[in-house]
Write a structure and sequence with these properties.
With 316 residues, this protein is an all-alpha fold. Helices cover 83% and strands 0% of the residues. The protein contains twelve helices and no strands. Helix 2 runs antiparallel to helix 3. The C terminus is likely disordered.
């Protein structure tokens, strides 16, 4: 038994490390809000896995023989409940990921409502299990987890599939939705159908880490990167158009700004837009004058800051 526990722990630690590295890579290669949401989802879920689930094994291994059965039961329940807030934040970031992948905005009002409802449920769960034995309190925790993970995963899957998806991205969306929904159902099935035992806990924690790891693996090695850039580019284009309108930027000057923000040099811009190098310099000089900046780095910083600010206002 100890060998099996050690092997699965090492496997979970490897999955966690690999997933965090992959999600960090996705953020670097595709600096989009949905990638950051995925990263935080992974962090919070793994935090619960190590703190709330593997913590139970550590408590039993280290202090199990030194505590009375009643005290051990109380410590185990409290430790598990203290890991639940990580779950709440992890589920919230999953919903945010699904919304952003589908091209929707997850507003701050929804965040506040989600946290209020779920932390209220956690407090109620803590009060209900306060005076219960471990064997009596665990079913309530299982029901809470199973119902919540299925609900939030199905909502996320529905958002991904039914969002503003271009035709070429439907396969990726359906695959991601299937991974999320099937993973949630599998976890709930293990908790509700298998008798409570060490093997049940090991099966659950293995599924928790494996399913969470599948998301960055799929996005890294299977998904078409173009599909999850399109909606974000659409929002950025709207914000850039608004920026140009306020600063009386002409359409051709807007093209220059767009290519500057893409990192192109003046000569590369001239070649791409089929204009002379001097024309690019003249447009650039007028852009600097209209936006009150001195160089292209200041211009890029200003444009990105304004786009992010407008995105934040759209969220509220």
């Amino acid at each position: 038994m100890k060998i099996a526990v050690l092997i699965i722990f090492i496997f979970c630690a490897a999955l966690a490390s690999g997933s965090i590295l992959l999600s960090s890579r996705l953020i670097r290669e595709h600096p989009l809000p949905l990638m950051r949401s995925l990263f935080y989802h992974i962090i919070f879920i793994f935090a619960f896995g190590f703190y709330g689930v593997w913590g139970q094994f550590i408590i039993v291994t280290v202090a199990g023989s030194q505590l009375t059965p009643d005290l051990l039961s109380t410590v185990s329940v409290v430790s598990l409940l203290m890991g639940m807030p990580f779950l709440v934040f992890g589920w919230m970031m999953l919903l945010r990921f699904g919304s952003e992948y589908a091209g929707y905005r997850f507003s701050n009002y929804l965040v506040a409502l989600f946290l209020l409802v779920n932390f209220g449920l956690l407090v109620s769960l803590g009060v209900a299990t306060r005076d219960m034995e471990y064997s009596e309190g665990m079913p309530l925790i299982k029901y809470y987890y199973s119902g919540s993970v299925i609900l939030f995963s199905l909502i996320t899957a529905w958002l991904i599939v039914s969002g503003r998806a271009p035709s070429s991205g439907k396969t990726d969306r359906r695959s991601l939705a299937a991974i999320i929904a099937a993973g949630a159902v599998a976890q709930a099935a293990v908790l509700l159908l298998l008798p409570h035992s060490v093997w049940m806990a090991l099966a659950f924690v293995f599924l928790l880490f494996a399913v969470t790891s599948l998301l960055p693996v799929y996005l890294t090695y299977q998904a078409d990167p173009k599909t999850y850039h399109r909606e974000d580019q659409g929002h950025q284009q709207e914000n850039l158009d608004e920026f140009c309108r306020k600063n009386e930027i002409s359409p051709r000057e807007a093209d220059i700004i767009r290519e500057i923000c893409n990192g192109l040099s003046n000569q590369e811009i001239a070649d791409k837009l089929f204009i002379s190098l001097q024309t690019v310099k003249d447009h650039t000089s007028r852009i600097y004058s209209k936006t009150n900046v001195r160089n292209r780095m200041q211009l890029m910083t200003m444009v990105r800051r304004i786009i992010q600010l407008q995105d934040g206002q759209a969220d509220t």
